[in-house]
Design a protein that fits this description.
heterodimer; A: Rossmann fold; Rossmann fold; 9-stranded mixed beta sheet; 9 helices; 29% helix; B: alpha/beta; two-stranded antiparallel ribbon
Chain lengths: 323, 254
């Protein structure tokens, strides 16, 4: 066994940012153990993304191509990558922790009697893989001790995509053997849920509300704060799941990604699914009664207290300041 | 339709968390437990499918004795019977180890459909449903918000990233991991709670850990801060006034 394989994912015809971050993680593992790195692209026709990958400092690019890989299916990807891994016998296989990877990588690892160490946020000497537990309130350190390759997926934003140097790698082709009957699911075309009328992405100021608000009837106090600030109102997933605010106001991995000048999080604990949607904000303020809430790990300013007291007081203070 | 729902009991969301003396897990005596949120949605989906197409809903849960309360809750909401995999070292087993326990316990039932929540709120591996499908040799789909039975099997609505969705068709038997928010959760009725006491809960003992797991949890810690947070002191009014000052003169946003 030798070498590190990093499986890159296509997004709108190009390699997505989180895949470059996975490559950075793969290069970190490679540097720890003095091993070469292969970039793996997969699909029915991979020429353009293979060319894109070849501009980075990797030892080679492997194009896993088959007509049955034109659309993503768990069966197709699992079969193809299983064959590639058997042939290459790498010590580690690194993925971006995307919805797609979550759909097949656990099965791929299990097929080889291995376990995916998923959603990794840091890699230390050893290697030791750090991932979040209890919705980000704790961090767990994991070690791989299987006899096969170590499967790892990395969280969005955890590794530096811009740290990868450029290069000029050669590409090789790998043609897996797949039979159409082995693909048991039939995927449809992606579609948008509903017309998006609120563009949170361009809002300079956002007030966002979470579970701490307890009931829909309490929402007006947060709306008043947003109005006083001249901010858009947004929410974490549970608020939209309950139908208290429309889905289009949801910030997080399944909603919109925002990076306003000010993101004011009210009663949001800060589960990773929410943080990935807002941690690029210029200034983050958190109001939460739990001093251990993970939202405080990304906040610039925090008020630990009862939002039902703090939010109205803040609304008044802002009105006063604006005169 | 015979449906199996794998549910997990996890620490309550607001539970106060302390690391225990082993440094590998939390102090369990401090903590209240609840049904994992997305598992509750998986159970709801199963109950609704049974109401439409008749059949049976069986819940399965692995963990120590306390897990029984979460199983009773599922029975009170309407599940027909339950399997409790009695296991005191769940946290030391990796995702494959736990999926193997569940697969062994449910294999004899030959269910048409296996549902799980998409991810547990404690360890958060998000892999059990996918590995179960692999171990049982059935197709799967993840992050599902809506399930519709068709002549050929199922048509499901899958959540993708950034506000996109996708429909997937797959034959039965199959496994699905369910995303939160697709349905409205029901409450247990008094009648349901009463009935739950008489429903079958079969306890099976988990096989002992077969050697070390592949992914070993060596220790837990409080996470490193990504930014230095200024915690603003004072009562609500003072803190609000200070925050406005800081946003105006320090961050220069207002």
């Amino acid at each position: 066994m030798s070498g590190i394989c990093v499986v890159l994912e296509e997004r709108d015809g190009r390699i997505g940012r989180i895949s470059w971050e996975a490559l950075a993680a793969g290069k970190l593992l490679a540097a720890q153990s003095g091993q070469p790195v292969s970039a793996v692209v997969i699909g029915a026709s991979t020429e353009s993304i293979a060319n894109e990958a070849a501009t980075k400092a990797v030892n080679n690019v492997i194009r896993v191509e088959h007509p049955l890989l034109a659309h993503y299916t768990s069966d197709g990807y699992t079969i193809a990558l299983h064959q590639l891994i058997e042939k290459e016998s790498p010590t580690a296989v690194v993925f971006p922790h995307t919805y797609q990877v979550r759909d097949f990588a656990p099965a791929l690892a299990a097929r080889m009697n291995e376990v995916l160490i998923g959603d990794v946020v840091a890699i230390g000497e050893g290697p030791v893989f750090t991932r979040q537990l209890l919705q980000g309130r704790l961090a767990g350190n994991y070690r791989h001790q299987g006899s096969g390759p170590c499967f790892v997926s990395v969280q969005a934003g955890a590794f530096r995509a811009d740290a990868i140097e450029s290069g000029s790698a050669e590409a090789t082709n790998f043609t897996p053997t797949i039979d159409a009957a082995q693909i048991r699911t039939e995927p449809g075309e992606p579609f948008r849920g509903s017309a998006q009328t609120v563009d949170l992405g361009s809002a300079p100021l956002i007030v966002s509300v979470g579970r701490g608000i307890k009931e829909a009837d309490n929402l007006p106090i947060v709306q008043e704060l947003a109005t006083a600030l001249g901010a858009e109102l947004a929410a974490s997933r549970p608020i939209c799941d309950n139908g208290w605010l429309p889905m289009e106001r949801q910030v997080g991995s399944s909603g919109q990604t925002v990076s306003p000048k000010l993101y004011l999080a009210v009663g949001i604990s800060g589960a990773i699914q929410h943080l990935v949607g807002m941690k690029g904000s210029q200034c983050i303020v958190a109001i939460n009664k739990d001093p251990d809430a993970p939202i405080f790990e990304v906040a610039d300013y925090g008020i630990v207290g009862d939002l039902f007291e703090v939010v109205p007081a803040l609304t008044e203070a802002i009105k006063a300041a604006k005169g | 339709m015979k449906i199996i729902v794998a549910i997990k009991q996890v620490p309550e969301r607001d539970a106060h968390i302390r690391i225990d003396s082993s440094g590998k897990w939390i102090e369990e005596s401090d903590v209240q437990y609840a049904m994992n949120e997305s598992d509750a949605y998986a159970l709801e989906e199963a109950l609704q499918l049974r109401e439409k197409h008749s059949g049976e809903v069986i819940v399965v849960s692995a963990g120590p004795e306390r897990v029984g309360t979460t199983i009773r809750e599922a029975l009170a909401k309407g599940a027909d019977r339950a399997i409790h995999i009695d296991c005191n070292d769940l946290n030391q087993r990796d995702a494959l180890g736990v999926a193997r326990l569940i697969a062994d316990a449910i294999r004899p039932d030959n269910a048409d459909l296996i549902l799980t929540g998409l991810q547990s709120d404690d360890l958060g591996y998000g892999q059990t449903g996918v590995i179960l499908a692999e171990l049982l040799g059935v197709p799967h789909a993840t992050l599902i918000l809506h399930v519709e039975k068709t002549d050929a099997g199922l048509k499901v609505k899958r959540e993708l990233e950034a506000g996109f969705f996708q429909e997937i068709e797959l034959p039965l038997p199959a496994a699905l991991t369910i995303q939160s928010g697709g349905n409205k959760l029901r409450y247990a009725t008094l009648m349901g709670i009463k009935k739950a006491k008489t429903k079958e809960m079969r306890v099976v003992t988990a096989a002992a850990l077969d050697g070390a797991p592949v992914a070993v949890l060596d220790g837990i810690a409080h996470p490193k801060k990504q930014r230095s947070t200024q915690i603003i002191p004072g009562d609500a009014k003072q803190a609000a006034a200070t925050l406005v000052e800081k946003l105006k003169f320090e961050a220069r946003i207002l």
